[in-house]
Write a structure and sequence with these properties.
CATH topology of chain B: Chemotaxis protein chec
Bound molecules: adenosine-5'-triphosphate, magnesium ion
CATH architecture of the largest domain in chain A: 2-Layer Sandwich
CATH superfamily of the largest domain in chain A: Histidine kinase-like ATPase, C-terminal domain
Number of helices of chain B: 6
Largest sheet of chain A: 5 strands, antiparallel
Oligomer: heterodimer
Helix content of chain A: 40-55%
Structural class of chain B: alpha+beta
CATH architecture of chain B: 3-Layer(aba) Sandwich
CATH class of chain B: Alpha Beta
Number of domains of chain B: 1
Strand order of the largest sheet of chain A: 2-1-7-6-3
Chain lengths: 400, 202
């Protein structure tokens, strides 16, 4: 502080050529900021080289003149008044670029001789030296910061627009999917009905060859309908429009119903469902139809991926605070590299067109979403070549 | 707890509201639209209690501007708003917004200037009251939770602070913030003593 005030003295008491020659004068001239000092008589007593360059006013032209004489255009402006308060009240002030669009008339010379107005941020600080008040004004060229933020602003606006467009597309996509699926379902249902009637023989016996073709058509129409229903389900889950009627559900009753429904499917794959372990009378917190949908998928998967003649074992057991339903098969197992993707949409271990099992790979992703909505969970344990156990955990609930 | 009389409270509130009026005039002129500033409440509280006012209501982050004062009184002055309000204030005042979640460098600088204008007005009205000089430093942008800002758990949580509610009226919304003068105890005593002199002289 002591040497500092000496420096101030040497510069301020003898204005003119000598201050530039002093060490401190040289240091100030090397500064990358504009610096000038105003004394209590409002006279400019220091003016560094940066100021001289940017204002095109040489030091000799300003030293000893008042601030108002040097910058008549700033009379009454905020910058003039904060200099006053710095001198009178000793308060420091900041003048930001954003709130003060044009502060001092300062320009930078750039290559082509063209002069550009300097974007500024200004600080005004009171200084006291030997009992006298001064005010230091420091100007920083914030042009790079202004340009940086201009780029940022453009990028942020673009990102915002892109985000909006993406949302629009995704909304359109899901609307499109659901409209198309609904439109497809109606005619398909009637095709299936008609084909069903024809193949059942009520319209008259069919030649064996024709009957074969009709039943292929029938099966495939069925598959298409399943697919469409699954797609509609996924769409509903994703848009949060799937309704759940949650209440206490008699688990054993639902399970028996699901087994019965899957019996023909099991026969088709030549497997046998065995209800191994039960919990009589247990009620769970679920939506009956949705729970049925999950059980159907696990039971049909187990049948599809079991060897002929195998058993599929079903167990109901207590698992901590939850009730667990296990569906255990002795089939192919799930390849390790596929395990992490198994609950994703349209994911199947055998993605080839030639796979022998039907399905679209939507079942497990729907099942998982359903279980989560009901406050439960789904998981599996598997060993390749030995079999797989899929299980669901559901909250127990007092029976109705 | 440090109690002040109703008369003392009214007197401080009035003085502060006058200086807020002039700060509001400066801001209004800068941004070319009406800005209102008021100090509806003044209290003397331990830092801990001041921090709680922020942390209890919403333990979300606060942000604002601080500058230190020295001379007749010593300490720090803070102007704090809930973080998202700071964003609102700056973006309403600047008009030209950048759609990003936090203040940009330049917006922080603008907030510093806004805080600087308000805090300088308060500090100079205190200086006028004391008829002594108070030197204020440059404003700095800060953010954090109440306890971070009030340096709780550093052994000074029982120190008293002068806690002012500040109402910021902009366009169609009004935003509430706080100004805190964290003064050391001798400074506070001196402040109250001067206050009484002034009131007695009335
Ligand atoms: N018990 C299982 N054993 C072996 N692999 C299984 C078993 N369950 C499911 N997988 C694998 O996970 C894939 C996805 O099953 P998911 O139920 O989601 O679809 P899917 O049964 O192929 O078709 P969908 O259920 O939609 O008719 C299956 O294609 C199969 O590769
Ligand atoms: Mg399936």
């Amino acid at each position: 502080m002591h040497s500092d005030s000496n420096a101030l003295n040497s510069i301020t008491t003898e204005p003119g050529a000598s201050d530039a020659d002093s060490l401190f004068g040289k240091v100030l001239d090397l500064s990358e900021h504009g610096l000038f000092l105003v004394d209590s008589a409002r006279k400019i007593v220091l003016w560094n080289e940066w100021m001289a360059q940017a204002s095109s006013l040489a030091r000799g032209d300003v030293i000893g003149r008042t601030f108002n004489e040097v910058f008549p255009e700033l009379a009454g402006k905020r910058v003039a008044s904060v200099i006053e308060t710095a001198l009178d009240m000793r308060t420091a002030s900041l003048l930001s670029r954003s709130l003060n669009k044009s502060l001092f008339p300062l320009f930078s010379a750039n290559g082509g001789g063209e002069r550009k107005r300097i974007e500024q941020s200004v600080i005004v600080k009171p200084i006291q030296c030997d009992g006298r008040n001064y005010c230091l004004v420091q100007i920083t060229d914030v042009t790079p910061m202004v340009q940086r933020e201009e780029v940022l602003r453009v990028l942020a606006r673009e990102a915002e627009a892109a985000q909006k467009a993406a949302e629009e597309i995704s909304r359109f996509k899901s609307e499109f999917t659901s409209t198309v699926s609904h439109e497809l379902r109606t005619p398909l249902t009637s095709i299936r009905g008609s084909l069903g009637l024809v193949s059942s023989g009520v319209m008259g016996e069919l030649p064996l060859e024709v009957n074969k073709l009709v039943s292929i058509a029938c099966n495939n129409t069925e598959r298409l309908l399943f697919l469409i229903n699954d797609i509609l389900d996924i769409d509903k889950i994703e848009s949060g429009k799937m309704d759940f009627v949650i209440g206490p559900v008699d688990l054993m009753a639902v399970l028996r119903q699901a087994l019965e429904a899957n019996q023909p499917y099991g026969e088709q794959y030549k497997i046998r469902y065995v209800l191994n372990q039960v919990m009589a009378g247990v009620a769970v917190r679920a939506d009956t139809d949705r729970l049925m949908q999950v059980l159907n998928n696990l039971l049909s998967n187990a049948a599809k991926f079991s060897p002929e003649g195998a058993e599929v074992e079903i167990n109901v057991l207590q698992n901590g605070a939850m009730i667990r339903v296990e569906v255990k098969d002795f089939g192919t197992g799930i390849p390790l590299q596929f395990q992490s993707r198994i609950f994703e949409k349209f994911s199947q271990a055998d993605g080839s067109d030639t796979r022998k099992t039907g399905g679209t790979g939507l079942g497990l992703s729907i099942s998982k979403a359903i279980m989560e909505k009901m406050g439960g969970g789904i998981g599996f344990e598997t060993e390749e070549g030995k079999g797989t156990t899929f299980y669901i955990d559901i909250c127990e609930m007092a029976p109705a | 707890m440090f109690e002040i009389t109703d008369i003392q409270r009214d007197y401080i509130t009035e003085i502060l509201n006058i200086s807020m009026g002039s700060a509001a005039a400066v801001l209004s002129e800068m941004v070319g639209e009406e800005v209102g500033l008021s100090v509806p409440e003044v209290a003397f509280l331990p830092r801990r209690v001041a921090a709680d006012q922020f942390d209890l209501n919403n333990s979300a982050k606060m942000s604002g501007v601080t500058q230190s004062v020295s001379g007749a009184i010593n300490g720090d002055a803070l102007l704090m708003f809930p973080e998202e309000k700071t964003l609102t204030i700056v973006r309403i005042l600047l008009g030209d917004t950048v759609p990003v979640e936090s203040l940009t460098e330049m917006e922080q600088e603008a907030m510093c200037e806004i805080g600087n204008i308000i805090l300088n007005a308060i500090v100079s009205s205190v200086a006028n009251l004391l008829q002594k000089e108070i030197v204020s430093s440059l404003p700095r942008f800060i953010s954090g939770t109440g306890s971070e800002i009030y340096a709780i758990n550093t052994g000074c949580e029982d120190d008293l602070v002068m806690f002012l509610k500040v109402g910021f009226g902009l366009e169609s919304q009004s935003i509430n913030g706080h100004v805190t003068l964290m003064l050391n105890v001798p400074s506070l005593r001196e402040f109250i003593a001067h206050l009484d002199e002034k009131i007695n002289a009335l």
